[in-house]
Structures are given as C-alpha cells and as structure tokens.
Design a protein that fits this description.
The complex is a heterodimer of chains A (405) and B (165). Chain A is mainly beta and 405 residues long. Helix content of chain A is 13%, strand content 40%. Classes of the chains: A mainly beta (405), B mainly alpha (165).
Chain lengths: 405, 165
C-alpha cells in the first residue's frame, strides 16, 4: 500500500469520527477535573490519617526497629498493614544498596537514603538512553543493556563490577527489553530479548552467567497473537516465569516454564490471578522458598459507574498456581498506577518494587504512592521518588528505573 | 481568568484532533470521548504548568493514549462509559471503505495500531513516536513496517471478502 494513500485513509477515518464526537464545553471538563482530584485527595487524606492512627496506636515498627512515625512520606493504604508472610525467613540483613537506571545512567543507590552512591555507566543525555539492569545474588556484579534511543548502536548484555570498573560485553547481537534476572544461585540469566537489528520479534532467553545460550523460546511459541511481558528465574535457575498477554495486551497470566523440558512457551503451566476480578501484573520467584510472588491488580468495587483499583501482593505455588498467602496492598484512587517491577534480595525477605503512573501529571510534583518501595513485612517504606533530572522545560521528576537489589 | 481562557482556547482547538486519534486506536467513539475528556480534565487541573510546554497537545495525547492503551482497564472504563452515555449506539452509516479500514484496524495488535496512529494520524516522526513510547527507534521502525504489512493484508482480505459475498 502506498504510504501517502495509507495516511490519507487513516486521517479521513479519524477525522470523520472526530467530527461525529460530542464535545462538552470547557466548563464541564473543569468540573470533571475537580471531581476527579477531589476524589483522589479525599482518599489520600483519609488513607494517611488511618495509617498514622494505626501506626501510632499499635506501635508498629519497621523491620530494622525504627519507629514507623519517622518514616518519610508514609504510604496511604486504606487497610491495616499486611503482616509478613508466615513462611518468610525472619533473618536477612537489609541490603545497603540497590542498582537501577537513573535517567540515562546505571547507578548504585542507597537503600536508606535513596541517594546515588556511585555511577557504574553513563550518563547519557536525558531522554536519549535508558537501561535494563540485573544484579548477581551476592551484589558484586551488575548486568545491564541499553534500552532507549537506538540500543542496536551498542547491542548486548554488559557486566560491570558493582564496585565500579570497565564494563565487559558478555552477550552480543541481542538486546534485552525486560529486566535482566539472575537466578538466586547466580548460575543463570533470563530476559525478554529482541535481536539486533530488530525484527520486532521478542524471545525469552536463558543464558549461563558467562553468556552462553541455555534456552531460547520465540514469542510466537506462546500462541498466535500473544505477547510477552517480563520474566523471572526460579532460585535454582530451572524454571522461568513469563507474563503472557493477549492481542489486546490484557495479561492472561504467567507461564511457568521448565527450562530443560518445555519446548514452547505454550507448554508452560498458565497461572492466573487467584482472586476474581484481578489480573496479575508482574511476578517474581522468591529466593529460598521458591514461591511465585506477584502483584495482582483488582477492580475493587463499582459504584455510580466508578470502579477503584487496588494492588495486592500474593504468593502462589508455581506448580499449581494455588494461593499460599498475601502481602502488602495499596489503593489506586486515580486508576493511573502500575507496578512496573519487583525484585527480592538474596534472602527473599526484602522486596523492592516500583510503582509508576500513567498520568504524566503525577511525575510533576509530590505523589503519595509512586516511586521505589521496599517491603520487609509490616508497612512498606518508600525509598525514593521524583528525582529531578534535566533543567527548565526538559526537567522531569523520575524514579530509579528497574530497581534491583 | 487569563489562564482559564488559555485552557478553553486550547481545549476548543485540539479536542477533536485528539478524539480522532484515540478513536483510531480504540475503534469506539464513546470510549474515545471518555478517555479524551479525562485527559483534558487532567490538563485543566495542571494547566499552569502544561501551558508553558512547547506542545501541550502532546502531553494530553500521552495521557489519553496511556489510558486507552491500558487495555486491562477496558472493562472498568466500559462501565464508566455506559454510566455516562448509555449503551452503545448502532454503528453509524459509513462507506464500505471506512468499514473495511475499521475492521482491518481492529484486527491489528494494539502495538501496531498505536504506531500507525501516532505516525500517520498524529503525524509524528519515527523519532517522535519512539520518544513518546519510550522505545528504541529501530523497534518503532520495525513495528511500523509490520503494521503496514498487516493492515494491507487485512484490507486485502476484507475487500476480497466483500467482493466474494
């Protein structure tokens, strides 16, 4: 089809619909805005009051013994803070740092303060580059790859000491488009990858720590028209969990694949959200227990045509999909939020997760829920949010991307 | 007052353009109206900042597309649309070509539809599409290429089906 003809057809198609569309007056739009933000504000204030009241009244304390009232910007959950899962190991020191993409550089960030401890790679000019990252279980080695801009200009998976040093390319000719996951025993890496030059096709790839290919599943093997969405490796590196979406990008669930056995993604066991009205949005194997932890997004209730969403951590049996226990939960009063990544430390006791928002306005000022959080049982603690990058009109409040212990 | 007038003028000038683009993405006019009005509502609330941007319309489009693209929320949005507008009207009269295109677009994946709409309807360059979607330029080129082929195939099938009927 000729390019100009295609453009003309599509423009005409959109223009005809636009001409038929109803357009309320501007005052109605402003009223709609006031109603929306009043609802969000009311829920946020109520949530903060409830949490502070519960925290002071019950004398809740963080895992490291610091009184909860000293925590910065507490999360406005509307329910009693979730208890730690009973099978979570009680020991396991909180990692002092984590690693992530910080607006064009791979950085080591303090868990306590949220401040950058050191830069491992970059920076590139803001907006032109970003990275997917992964860390070895002992936190001595960081894996990363280019994501934004033109990743095929410098394709591959790179390894760099967490203490700093020269990056070494361990994989060439492909570019991970998901976080790089390292098994808890450090023997294997897994990610969703595109070849360079890109064909638009994504594969699930498992490699050993030296970069040698162990297994590759083409996305097409998930089934016609299905797409992939993030991976996780079991502690022993023998299973891979991969999110599978349908043509409409609705997450159908998580396929748990046996690396040695399954020939196609469709061979893996399909695990769905255990609760009705919920979808799984991101999943991660928990070290030591081998359970599959996942955030599910649920439509909480519908009243007057308004539904409210809620995110909740659930622990599942990766073999059967059975619900084992529940964890931290939070509301999404504006229906704009998402959990974009999650990662456990080596002990499986401390969970690092990132909450993002589809509403750019949420990145332009303080927001009660977005950012990088850790959960070690009890109340979650926000580590950082809205780091200002760039200047003037180009400035933007970002949070560390793809945070990983 | 000047700020309010600024938003009103912006809204009047750009609303239909954004609705058309969101409609091309979703294929449902009521849903497109709802998503677009939500995006403008958010813009009105933050207008003092957004007005200073080079392209406020790009901000609104990004908000609208984020919401429209998040298909996991379609069921919720559909309930909202139903409450506001009532059940969907009958399909309006349309030319055979337009219906072919409508059905062909619906058969594309959302990712393919999205790059087609941003590039051809919103008239963004490949680099600008990559910036909006936070994707590598190569990935956008590849998706665009596949989307064009898929659409051509679908249109071929549609027209063949019509002529055979």
């Amino acid at each position: 089809m000729r390019d100009d003809l295609l453009k003309e057809q599509l423009m005409s198609y959109a223009r005809t619909a636009a001409d038929e569309a109803a357009q309320p007056d501007a005052a109605a739009i402003r009223r709609r805005a006031r109603l929306h933000y009043r609802r969000v504000a009311a829920l946020t204030v109520a949530g903060v009051l409830l949490v502070v009241g519960l925290g002071v009244g019950l004398g809740l304390r963080r895992g490291d013994g610091t009184p909860t009232v000293d925590q910065p910007r507490p999360m406005p959950t509307l329910t009693r803070p979730a208890p730690a899962p009973s099978t979570t190991p009680a020991t396991g020191r909180l990692p002092g740092t984590f690693v992530g993409d910080l607006g064009g550089r791979v950085a080591v960030v303090s868990t306590r303060t949220g401040k950058v401890v050191r830069t491992l790679y970059g920076p590139h000019p803001f907006g032109t580059d970003s990275y997917t990252v992964g860390t070895s279980p002992d936190q001595t080695t960081v894996y990363f790859s280019h994501y934004g801009g033109d990743p095929c200009a410098e394709p591959g998976v790179f390894r760099v000491p967490a203490a700093g040093g020269r990056p070494v390319r361990v994989v060439d000719g492909e570019n991970p488009e998901s976080m790089i996951k390292v098994s808890a025993d450090g023997s294997r890496l897994a990610y969703v990858s595109a070849p360079c030059p890109s064909t638009g096709q994504l594969d699930v790839v498992v490699r050993d720590a030296a970069g040698r290919l162990v297994r590759r599943w083409p996305a097409a093997s998930a089934g016609a028209g299905l797409a992939l969405d993030g991976v996780s490796l079991s502690p022993d590196g023998r299973r891979v969990a991969v999110g599978v979406t349908d043509q409409e990008l609705i997450l159908l669930g998580v396929r748990v694949l046996e690396v040695a056995r399954d020939r196609s993604i469709a061979d893996g066991r399909l695990i769905k959200a255990p609760d009705p009205g919920c979808d799984l949005v991101v999943a991660e194997f928990q070290p030591r227990t081998g359970r599959l932890a996942a955030f599910e997004r649920c439509v909480r209730r519908v009243s007057g045509g308004i539904a409210r969403e809620r995110f909740r951590l659930v622990y599942l049996d990766p073999g059967s999909g059975r619900l084992l226990s529940r964890g931290v939960a939070f509301d999404d009063p504006g229906n704009d939020l998402s959990v974009s990544s999650m990662d456990f430390d080596q002990s499986g006791r401390h969970l690092l997760y990132q909450v993002g928002s589809a509403n750019p306005a949420d990145g332009e000022g303080p927001h009660p829920v977005t950012g990088t959080w850790r959960w070690s049982g009890g109340r979650p603690v926000r580590i950082e949010d809205d780091r200002t990058v760039g200047t003037g009109q180009a400035s933007q409040g970002i949070t560390t991307g793809n945070p990983t212990w | 007052m000047a700020q309010r007038q600024g938003f009103d003028a912006f809204y009047s000038a750009s609303y239909r353009r954004i609705v058309g683009q969101v409609f091309a993405l979703l294929g449902d006019l009521h849903e497109a109206e709802d998503v677009t009005q939500d995006a403008f509502a958010k813009a009105s609330f933050h207008w003092s900042r957004i007005a200073a941007y080079d392209q406020p319309e790009a901000w609104v489009r990004r908000v609208a597309f984020n919401e429209a693209y998040n298909s996991a929320r379609r069921a919720r949005r559909w309930l909202v649309v139903l409450a506001r507008h009532g059940p969907p009207a009958d399909v309006p009269a349309a030319s055979a070509d337009r219906l072919d295109l409508h059905h062909a677009l619906r058969r594309l994946s959302p990712r393919h539809r999205e790059v087609l709409v941003l590039h051809y309807v919103a008239e963004l360059s490949v680099e600008e599409v990559a910036g909006q979607l936070r994707l590598p330029v190569g990935t956008v080129k590849s998706r665009l290429n596949r989307a064009r082929h898929a659409l051509a195939e679908q249109l071929g099938d549609e027209r063949e089906g019509v002529s055979n009927a």
